[in-house]
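Worked example 3. Consider a protein that binds FE2/S2 (inorganic) cluster.
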Amino acid sequence: MTTLHLKLLVWRQAGPHAAGRFVRYDAPDLSPDMSFLEMLDVVNERLIAQGEEPIAFDHDCREGICGSCGLVINGVAHGPMRGTATCQLHLRSFRSGQEVVIEPWRAKAFPVVRDLIVDRGALDRIIAAGGYISARTGGVPDANAVLVPKDDADAAMDAAACIGCGACVAACPNASASLFAAAKIAHLGLMPQGQPERPERVLRMVTQMDMEGFGNCTNIGECQEACPKLISIDVIARMNRDFLRASMFGGEGRVTGGGEA
Amino acid sequence: MELRARIPSGPLADKWDRHRFEMKLVNPANKRRYTVLVVGSGLAGASAAASLAELGYQVRCFCFQDSPRRAHSIAAQGGINAAKNYQNDGDSIWRLFYDTIKGGDFRAREANVYRLAQISVDIIDQCVAQGVPFAREYSGYLANRSFGGAQVSRTFYARGQTGQQLLLGAYQALCKEIARGTVVMHPRTEMLDLILVDGRCRGIVTRNLVTGEVLAHVADAVVLATGGYGNVFYLSTNARGSNVTATYRAWKRGAAFGNPCFTQIHPTCIPVSGDYQSKLTLMSESLRNDGRVWVPRQAGDHRAPHEIPEPERDYYLERKYPSFGNLSPRDIASRAAKEVCDEGRGVGPGGRGVFLDFADAIARLGRETIEERYGNLFEMYQRITDENPYRVPMRIYPAVHYTMGGLWVDYNLMSTIPGLHVLGEANFSDHGANRLGASALMQGLADGYFIIPVTIGDYLATTRLEKITTDHPEVRGAMEAVERRTSRLLSVRGSRTVDSFHRELGSLLWDKCGMARTAGGLTEALRRIPEIRAEFWENVTVPGSDAHLNQALEKANRVADYLEFAELMCRDALHREESCGGHFREEHQTPDGEASRDDDRFAYVAAWEYAGDGAEPVLHREPLVFENVQLAQRSYK
Ligand SMILES: Cc1cc2nc3c(=O)[nH]c(=O)nc-3n(C[C@H](O)[C@H](O)[C@H](O)COP(=O)(O)OP(=O)(O)OC[C@H]3O[C@@H](n4cnc5c(N)ncnc54)[C@H](O)[C@@H]3O)c2cc1C
Ligand code: FES
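Given these inputs, the predicted complex is written out as structure tokens:
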């Protein structure tokens, strides 16, 4: 069986206030069928066996759906494979002997916690600002009482596929969270159930995004390239339209029917 | 210990209604005086925390991930069942109830399962109201698909990301309450012990995973929704962080553990590819709607699949179970796969795999339809295996997936510790000895949205609780126990990594307490586990300290619990001298190799009580009484 030998350059940082630095690790005898995170597991097992502290990185599902993982690999958020989260990346995307630089997401709104782990709490706060439909538990109509045109449901699902990993922020030269916020705004704004709160939602989420220290969107498009779910930058245009309408008309900016966009 | 299931009397269909009426209520104005801790933010925890907060309770919610949205529920793919009968294909609450009881091989409570089927219809309404983008027909109506163990089409889905969309719905409801200040969220926080005062559960001890700080939280009631323990096997389809710690520590504080040996091995997962493997990936059961499972007729036939002509293929599920075919329940499909591989007819490296073939479906429906139904699953398969399933059949093999066992709860979802409630996969649940596909999401949301908000009120309204503070001796004691254990783990400084112990334990369990179990194998496992555990405490190495984010320490804590818990599983498996559902004792099978139940001796829930370290746990039995269904040998032929 062919094996791979990678030369890693990994960002190590003991804590939020500590200075970080790159450390070299040699990673020989790897299988091309390994996932990228399994490669880090192997490196970590060797470190621990030598009594050294393992490289800290976030991960959980390892199926590209929980949004925990996220590494900048050779300067690219989630690495070289388009539409693929770090945990779904396999070593067959690399050449033996290659140098691989591994860094955390870098953005003012995402302070480093340790090594490759950052604090993405700002994303939760953007959702808490309005990324929901205020339906209390109980007392709702039958599920088929309100019809949703299939195209709207499909488009809503495309946007709702966001895993909240933060790659869009990491990839954006302005560290903007627009793709993240806009995806939620599009998802809810395309569903008939999401109409009543649509103007307030966009105003509140955009305000929160600014407060968290994310940058502005200048339509560069790096975010959609880095998105593991390939969410289209079109949702940002939609958010901007909703925002404009809501700022001009406030609650009057309500529109019915989710289809336009 | 007394097991009081508190199942309401009266006809099955009226029990829940009547019980809701008979329960005591907390006056709306008083609710804000009560604090409830919800540990877990998966479907069960997030839905409970949001719904309790809406009612007015002060809620604190905990999860170990950096955000509640990342709970393991996010990974559920295929769908959620509900007895809506939107397809007019003969479904009903009764049929969902019956399918679930039968699917569980008659080892679940009738009353709970019936209630689950009743509530299933409300869940879909709730999720649609939250904006969950379920799949739709061109008419705008909701679409359905079929799942194993059912002959009706009652599964609602959002592409292959149903769990994600349902969890985001619950998470957004939770965020709405966090914004209102009624829920305080504690992410990256792990519960490590339970606090009991005067025999009642009054709080938890947590470790902040970023700073290492150990804290006590006191409250009026605690809800555990911490998921399943499939990772005791090391390799499973669960997220890497899923663990038994919360439920196991509750067990050691006096909560009975129900049916710990009931684990589900899912038939369709991507086979193991190397010893570096860190987890196994599920290929959703919904694929069996259109995929056909087969192996070569001849042992040792290594030809490429397209070179094997039709007559030389064995579509063994269709052959053995003509009426359910490829949609036979999971336990049955898994065992059948093991059987053909044991016969030397398995495919792929190591011969541990069977084909799941879409060629017929693609020919019949066109590639586009298949892509629309399963596109993301096909992509995931290709990404992992580097093979294109539109062209060559998938290779799949069974893997550990779900745990039916869990903390024992009464009809109100309260454990044997008053004030400690358990929801979702963490409780011993409504699935008996085998869970049907698309029923875990249903159960988690039934528990969280609709059951606990009512039953916890009854507990609080009927219980007098003294005020306590974190200075209470029981609280200090629990905190010190946690700190002692952490320093003990850090002080061993041996030479083996935590993972190496976990792998060793996992492969032992897979061999002896997996798809097929024997008295001899289980006895052997019970001898080996304490040896592995002893070595762990002498020779494990955990670098770093407890005062910072330390993932090696987190793992060590969890694996130390697995090393004890595994013994309880094997003990339970050894005592249950029958085969039922996912628990297959080779000594107990019918002449044609099907599970052979022993209803006279084993129609009960095995609830184990902790009796002290080193002492044998005590077995209590909750008899299962079937008044509405006839116990029968499960047949899917
Ligand atoms: C790959 C996969 C696909 C699946 N697909 C389906 C499907 O299609 N349909 C279906 O019905 N079921 C499916 N299931 C099963 C289903 O997803 C789970 O059973 C269900 O989501 C469990 O939900 P839960 O809320 O009980 O627990 P989880 O979602 O596991 O949540 C557990 C929570 O507890 C927290 N936690 C755990 N321990 C601690 C601790 N010590 N301290 C603090 N917090 C803690 C975690 O952080 C998390 O928030 C699938 C399972 C898998 C693995
Ligand atoms: S670990 Fe869950 S998305 Fe990568």
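Take a moment to read the result before moving on. The longest strand of chain A covers residues 21-30. Confidence is low (pLDDT under 50) at residues 256-261 of chain A.
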